[in-house]
């Protein structure tokens, strides 16, 4: 397998949403195209950044694309089979990168690796979920067969126009009607009383508190908010997400000990080295809590395999992994490896909204198509950013 | 105080050295100039990246410089005194940056903050060490008065031309003769036997094993190398630096428990959030081990103050802080706050080699001048990179 070209472009992703931490008014993302040549012909792989941590144009141009273009096709070969090896592709990207400092570059590597998975899957004429099932294996302990995954709706952002809770309740109701398994809303931006009011309006709308998860986006930093969490704990929610600073394992462990509600976290940890610490020190429990590392933001699927392996050795299951952000890579990995669920952004002004149109959603399940690759071509809100890059 | 302009440039820093982890053949750095206007006039502050993690051109252009240029002078004012506040300058840089992911951007913020410290100190007509002493306070528990700091030589790299240990011994002897307090060499690149041979040649040359520290540059990753460390422990060295992966606190704690030799680490942790975990889980002990976070690579001095504060609350002293990399910011902070020592790169082909020529080194101590700012202008090996930026 030979790399013919690698292109990248930084695009603005403006949105009027915000969470408890940041505004998304100046958010950017990277669109990447890798063209490869194999014995089966030439194929273009598409990669697109995940949401929330800015594009990677500078790092891609300065370090990671030059390394790919300078590499020899042999650098990507498995030493035994001589076939293409994603692990060796990944090692080429990480050549002369020091240990530690897992931010930014982890997303640059992840978006390039995404494009390469897309290209590789296309060269094998397979959807990525099937390539993963074939080469890695699907663990069917979440109740869905290969090519399918549970999907939930992630919404309930703070908005200028969302001053009252009626709209929030409507959004939750519409999401469940549309076939999502459960609904997640943002909290932590205001007072305990307003959080409870927001949550209760959604519980009323859905009719079942287990269909309601909340995301605090680290609103509580490194501080103790015991009474706040104890109030929320009474509501019997599906999970409390990112209650504290993502790296404050002591504060996280305190929350885990305090409440009965499951905890979900990990979207702001970008490397196996950090996930090892999360599992060692964060107090989380397998088969109860969820791990939400973002596959693209954390060095791609090669690193994600390492996270799964480390977690499994400590009693976790693939089902406990519910990756962050509704991107097509996460959709295919969830359906290919049998992860716990796929998150789908619910804000219609967000390009990550929904799934590719060749994916069917019904009864809480996404059923993926047999189209080769990861399917960015079938998701116009993302595919638009590649305009002119595929000529 | 008003920001007039911010310029940046990425420069190549080629060197034929390598450590146990990476080669430095394609290393880059960022040179930054911030021009400010105060009631005292206009001043240009210079910042230059620290060593070993690449320049930050992309991130500076994409996010951090635009934020500074879009800010209002009021955004940098202390809300009470109305004077310039570096904390508020820092908050402007970090606007709309999410928690976690502390790599790359931490160096971009750090190099901009460095330039701002240089500009601010110049506008006060003070060397930075004196500005820090005046505004923050000097803790004189390391035996040196304000404006002075202990200095040690960091060298002994692996080189093509360093096949035998004679050169290594010469390098150590020359360093102590030149007035450095102790000498550090690289290990971990080869076998235990070759490490011991390298170390013993330096002990013989210096005549005192307490004048010899070693740096493994994380050579041992997440693996156990108990016998290796037990062999080295017998040599009674000053410290063992970065024995394992910087984020593997469990592996670090195992090494700390295993050996009597003090441990030094932290140069690949780039945020207070990570340092909190290091101190909680790494097994390190105050007044024995050393903390080596790099002030520029880890969001600058504002974040470094937070690290010192957190560490002091757990029994550590400013003297236990020995920052990574011999840059002018670290020199002034060491001399201004009374840190444990300043590291000086010993490889003459490395632009970080030595200190500014207005700094005198004798008897293990660096005596800084009264020239305003951090003194990059007096260090030609770094100042050359600003050619044309100051017109």
Structure description:
The structure is a homodimer of 391-residue chains. With 391 residues, the first copy, chain A, is an alpha/beta fold. Chain A folds into 2 domains: 2-125, Enolase-like, N-terminal domain (Enolase-like, domain 1, 2-Layer Sandwich), CATH 3.30.390; 132-386, TIM Barrel (Alpha-Beta Barrel), CATH 3.20.20.120. Chain A has helices at residues 57-70, 86-93, 105-123, 128-135, 165-177, 192-206, 226-233, 249-258, 272-281, 300-312, 328-337, 380-383, and strands at residues 2-12, 28-38, 41-48, 148-154, 183-186, 212-215, 240-241, 263-265, 290-291, 342-345, 360-362, 365-367. In chain A, the strands form 2 sheets. In chain A, strands 4, 5, 6, 7, 8, 9, 10, 11 and 12 form a 9-stranded mixed beta sheet that branches. In chain A, strands 1-2-3 form a 3-stranded antiparallel beta sheet. In chain A, helix 1 (57-70) packs across helix 3 and helix 4 runs parallel beside helix 11 (328-337). The longest helix of chain A has 19 residues, at 105-123. Chain A is globular. The two termini of chain A are 21 Å apart. The interface between A and B is large, with 49 and 49 residues.
């Amino acid at each position: 397998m030979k790399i013919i070209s690698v292109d990248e472009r930084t695009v603005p992703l403006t949105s009027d949403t915000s969470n408890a931490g940041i505004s998304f008014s100046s958010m950017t993302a990277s669109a990447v195209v890798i063209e490869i040549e194999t014995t089966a012909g030439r194929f273009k792989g598409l990669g697109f950044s995940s949401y929330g941590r800015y594009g990677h144009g500078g790092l891609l141009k300065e370090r990671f694309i030059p390394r790919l273009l300078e590499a020899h096709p042999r650098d990507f070969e498995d030493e035994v089979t001589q076939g293409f090896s994603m692990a060796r592709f990944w090692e080429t990207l990480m050549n002369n990168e020091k240990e530690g400092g897992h931010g930014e570059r982890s997303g640059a590597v992840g978006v390039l690796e995404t494009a390469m998975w897309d290209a590789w899957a296309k060269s094998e004429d397979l959807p990525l979920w099937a390539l993963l099932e074939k080469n890695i294996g699907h663990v069917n302990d979440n109740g869905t067969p290969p090519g399918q995954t549970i999907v939930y709706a992630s919404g309930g952002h703070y908005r200028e126009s969302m001053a009252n809770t009626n709209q929030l309740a409507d959004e939750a109701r519409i999401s469940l009607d549309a076939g999502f398994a459960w609904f997640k809303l943002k909290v932590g931006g205001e007072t305990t009383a307003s959080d409870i009011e927001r949550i209760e309006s959604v519980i009323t709308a859905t009719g079942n508190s287990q269909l309601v998860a909340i995301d605090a986006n680290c609103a509580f930093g490194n501080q103790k908010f015991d009474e706040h969490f104890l109030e929320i704990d009474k509501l019997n929610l599906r999970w409390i997400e990112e209650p504290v600073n993502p790296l404050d394992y002591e504060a996280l462990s305190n929350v885990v000990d305090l409440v009965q509600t499951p905890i979900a976290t990990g979207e702001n940890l970008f490397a196996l080295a950090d996930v090892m610490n999360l599992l060692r020190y964060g107090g989380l429990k397998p088969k109860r809590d969820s791990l939400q590392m973002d596959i693209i933001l954390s060095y791609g699927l090669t690193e994600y395999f390492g996270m799964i392996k480390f977690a499994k050795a400590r009693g976790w299951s693939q089902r406990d992994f519910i990756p962050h952000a509704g991107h097509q890579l996460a959709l295919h990995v969830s359906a290919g490896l049998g992860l716990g669920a796929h998150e789908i952004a619910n804000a219609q002004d967000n390009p990550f909204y929904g799934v590719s149109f060749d994916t069917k959603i019904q009864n809480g399940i996404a059923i993926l198509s047999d189209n080769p690759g990861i399917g960015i071509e079938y998701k116009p809100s993302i595919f638009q950013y590649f305009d002119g890059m595929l000529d």
